[in-house]
């Protein structure tokens, strides 16, 4: 086909017979670019340092905090620019950066309260990927026994704005031209229900995406139920936080009631399977979530692996291992999770399809020699995939 681009948008898609001699040729299988719906870019610096040895999510978190403590706006910018370039080369054309490294070590704001957010947006511009900055509220160190919210640990102080109102004021002052801004609640461990409600209503007022880490670990669920008498999903439902603008990240340890709530509200569930297996989180019920009405997206999260094809195929492969059944998610469904549903979850409603009026974000992958058209897509998702060209906004 001939894809015509005007500005950064596809204006026409026509059969190959109309192709002019001087058109650029994308040789291979061209797909919409992928959405990395959940990223913590600075975790890239942990690659190779935390993947072996014993422990759990919680011991890994200690290593991650040590890394977080050393970053300032300049080093954050440099690390993010190279990591976003790596994402682009892997086929991600938009990234949702779940950002909570707001202030200086110890917690004092920088002179520009959004210096760290600016660093990320500048890094995405350097790498020429789209970004949705998911500005994250983080207030507490955890839910203690007895249901009281714990003080922040010293290393966590730079994550906190002190109050939900101060978070909202800082986010309101951040008006990037090229990026989108979404609202995020770090987790029910780090944000109490009243503050969750402030973030939810900020998202409503700005028609912005709302993201939250949800039920990644059984301990989070246990503390939440003990403190509030309901699961993290129940708590999110209570504050009016479920729905089509909401993305819950991980959703690994859910009750049957949680699955129904997420499904009937058409909430998006962002799975990060390469991270979830690295951190020994478990395998979320993706097949049951989709059957209940939820949508899926994928993210590279801890950056142990940056490869949208590996995330998509892992969604299906993990279900096979967990359920002893094949064919839980069709190839098309996996591609939609990786593209159009991820774009939508990040507020880029014009992305994720190759049709007129959509963003000209396109990737081309090598086609296996001899692959016939009906098998090309499955071969790309389930085989060895090499990305040979990436266009963002036609560039
Ligand atoms: Zn995360």
Notes on the structure:
By secondary structure, the protein is of the alpha/beta class. The chain is 37% helix and 19% strand. It has 14 helices and 15 strands. Helix 2 packs parallel to helix 3 (115-127), helix 8 (256-264) packs across helix 10 and helix 11 (308-323) crosses helix 12 (331-338). The protein starts with a strand and ends with a strand. The relative contact order is 0.16. The model has no long low-confidence stretch (mean pLDDT 94). Bound molecules: zinc ion. Zinc ion binds at residues 38, 40, 98, 213, 249, 301.
In which order are the strands of the major sheet placed?
4-5-6-9-10-11-12-13
Subunit organisation of the chains? single chain
Number of E strands: 15
Q: Report strand %.
A: 15-25%
Order of helices and strands: EEEEHHEHEEEHEHEHHEHEHHEHHHEHE
What is the CA-based Rg, rounded?
A: 21 Å
Percent helix: 25-40%
The biggest beta sheet, please? 8 strands, parallel
Small molecules bound: zinc ion
Mean pLDDT: 94
Q: N- to C-terminal separation?
A: 18 Å
> Helix count, per DSSP?
14
Short overview:
The protein is α/β, with parallel strands linked by helices and 395 residues long. It contains 14 helices and 15 strands. It has helices at residues 57-69, 73-90, 115-127, 164-172, 193-206, 218-228, 232-238, 256-264, 273-278, 286-292, 308-323, 331-338, 340-345, 373-382, and strands at 2-6, 9-14, 29-32, 34-39, 92-99, 130-137, 142-143, 149-150, 180-185, 210-214, 246-250, 268-271, 295-298, 362-365, 387-391.
């Amino acid at each position: 086909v001939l894809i015509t681009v005007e500005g950064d948008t596809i204006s026409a898609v026509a059969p190959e017979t109309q192709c002019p001699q001087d058109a650029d040729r994308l040789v291979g299988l061209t797909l919409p670019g992928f959405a990395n719906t959940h990223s913590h870019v600075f975790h890239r610096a942990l690659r190779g340092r935390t993947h072996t040895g014993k422990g759990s999510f919680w011991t890994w978190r200690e290593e991650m905090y040590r890394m977080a403590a050393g970053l300032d706006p300049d080093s954050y910018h440099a690390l993010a620019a190279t990591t976003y370039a790596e994402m682009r080369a892997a086929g991600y054309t938009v990234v949702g950066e779940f950002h909570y490294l707001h202030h200086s070590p110890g917690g004092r704001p920088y002179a520009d309260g959004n210096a760290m957010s600016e660093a990320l947006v500048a890094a995405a511009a350097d790498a020429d990927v789209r970004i949705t900055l998911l500005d994250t509220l983080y207030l507490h160190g955890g839910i203690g026994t007895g249901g009281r919210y714990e003080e922040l640990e010293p290393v966590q102080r730079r994550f906190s704005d002190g109050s939900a109102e101060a978070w909202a004021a800082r986010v309101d002052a951040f008006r990037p031209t090229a990026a989108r801004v979404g609202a995020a609640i770090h987790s029910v461990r780090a944000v109490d229900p009243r503050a969750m409600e402030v973030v939810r209503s900020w998202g409503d007022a700005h028609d912005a995406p709302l993201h939250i880490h949800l039920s990644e670990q059984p301990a989070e669920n246990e503390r939440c139920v003990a403190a509030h008498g309901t699961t993290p999903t129940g708590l999110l439902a209570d504050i009016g936080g479920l729905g089509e603008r909401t993305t819950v990240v991980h959703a690994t340890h859910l009750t049957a009631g949680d699955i129904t709530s997420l499904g009937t509200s058409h909430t998006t569930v962002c799975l990060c399977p390469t991270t979830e297996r690295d951190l020994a989180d478990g395998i979320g019920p993706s097949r049951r979530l989709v059957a209940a009405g939820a949508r899926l997206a994928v993210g590279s999260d801890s950056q142990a692996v940056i490869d949208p094809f590996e995330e998509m195929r892992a969604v299906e492969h993990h279900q096979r291992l967990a359920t002893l059944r094949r064919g839980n998610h069709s190839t098309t469904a996996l591609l939609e999770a990786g593209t159009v549903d991820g774009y939508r979850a990040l507020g880029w409603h014009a992305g994720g399809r190759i049709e007129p009026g959509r963003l000209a974000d396109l990737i081309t992958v090598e086609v296996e020699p001899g692959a016939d058209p009906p098998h090309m897509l499955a071969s790309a998702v389930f085989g060895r995939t090499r990305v040979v060209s990436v266009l963002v906004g036609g560039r």
